[in-house]
Amino acid sequence: MSLPLALVVLGLAAASLNAVLGGGRASAPFGEVARLLVQQRRRTLLHDALLMRIGVISLVAAPVLAGVVVPLGDVPVADLAVGIVWFNAMEVCVWGSLWLTGWSANSVYPLVGAYRFVAQGLAYELPHMFALITVALGAGSLRMSDAVQAQQGLWFVIWMPIAFLIYLVSALAMAFWGPMSQPLGSDLAGGVRAELSGPDRLLFQAGRYALLVVAAAAAVPLFLGGGGGPVLPSWLWVLVKTMAVLGLLVWVRHRVPAVRMDRFTQVSWLVLIPLSLVQLLVVGIVVV
């Protein structure tokens, strides 16, 4: 299965699971796709169509490019020597995607939503980076496949539980999902996506689900031993583990209320960063 097709399938699965947990029908995402494909685009006065196109399309491209270093079985599409850094860099590109989308609409609510995501990024990115550095330190490499090989005897989630929990929190934040969905807050009439309609809104939604899927898929080689497991082939174990993490992230959306950015920033800098540094120190001592 090719990477784009895998993202589409898992994205639709995530959307269906989200609809079911939210009290809707599993077929609802397919109806929404059909509706947005035929919906006419609307535009605000003096909007910047080029920047909006760049923002929306790059939101879809970023998770696809991030996913090329994530092993779908034993080997990723691109086994880069700096795969972990590449994954983080592509995720950071989402900041620019949302900023361009919010700015280009020439409307207050999308712009405020974009500012919220930048504030959210400043809060989650440092502990997220420390969690990834902890994995790289434990594996002795920045290559995703090396991280999988280093977990042959013991998965990193067992002796890096704090880094794993921080990664899950940052996964919610990078996909602006669940408690971290303030950039799309209802108090802002939809925030960043408030002025999007038709195919533009569809691409935006697809990019968001793709981010969620890639974040869940990356947790497998980083913390859950990749395709390691009994009986089943490696690619099927990757799929099972990815769906388990994805299900957890979708479930959180319907169980945890939205978090204000100022409070999340405070928790991040006073709690998550110190904890991530302690986890990094422990792993460093074990490795040495």
Automatic annotation (TrEMBL):
It comes from the Bacteria. It is a multi-pass membrane protein. It is found in: Cell membrane; Membrane. The chain crosses the membrane at residues 50-73, 80-102, 122-142, 154-177, 206-224, 236-254, 266-287. Keywords: Membrane, NAD, Transmembrane, Transmembrane helix. Its main location: membrane. It holds the Pfam family NADHdh. Belongs to the complex I subunit 1 family. This is Complex I subunit 1 family protein. It comes from Nonomuraea insulae.
